[in-house]
# Entry
Amino acid sequence: MNNHLNQIENALKTELCELVDDQCHNNIHMTLQEVIKEKANIEHFQQQMVDLCKYGSDLQAFFCLRKIFAKTASADQYMQTLADDGRLYRVIFTCNIVKQIPEFFSNVKSLGSIQLQKIPSQIKMESAKDKEAQLASLGIKSINDIKLNLVHTINLTGEFTGCCILPDEKIVLCDSKYNSDCIQILHPHGELISKIPTASSYHSDVTYIDNRTVAVSSDVQQQVHIINIDTKAMRPIPTTGSCYGITHKEGSLLCCIQGKGIQSVNLLSEKVVRL
# Structure
């Protein structure tokens, strides 16, 4: 609204300036120039008449006065024209206010109204009892009602400190037996696929990154090994302390570091951030 009113004000000022320049200043200036010119001519005629009276004969005065009268007639005609064509009129500026503006001030009592509106929050407060009642109504069992059934047993030899299951259901075990540290890759039913030696790294835990890549933590070497289970290539990433539990999430490893809590290690930049 302020911008619109400013535009209207500027337009009115521009119109006023143009009107003053065109109708007043220019016309007055031209009229004054013409009057000054005619004044100079009349003063010249007056001087001629004075000179004739002093120095001329009666015959000379007679003929010269006829010429002067003829010339002054044109000056008289100009002055009459100046009075008739309105150039000597007084100029008065008037401003006509648009009718809508007074009506606006008289009819509009306010520019709007302010109301308090309450919108339901997206935050929901739920209690454990409500959740249990909801699960019961849906026929879903709670965790206390879940019963485990033994599917099959896998007999292994070694000292296993970590385990994870790949998306293709292969099993990866972290074997920390002294002088035989390795990563074992098993079929879903327990058949050994391969072993990947880890050079006595004393690994603590293992997690998968994708079907072919796992990450293994070490509490002694204070680092994490990224291992390709197909090529058996290994890439170490240093940590800030002894690393035990480990998991992968959205391109970063979440590591449990002794005495320092949980830290996030980016797989690309290897930047460590404490959580």
User: Anything to note?
Assistant: The first helix runs from residue 2 to 55.
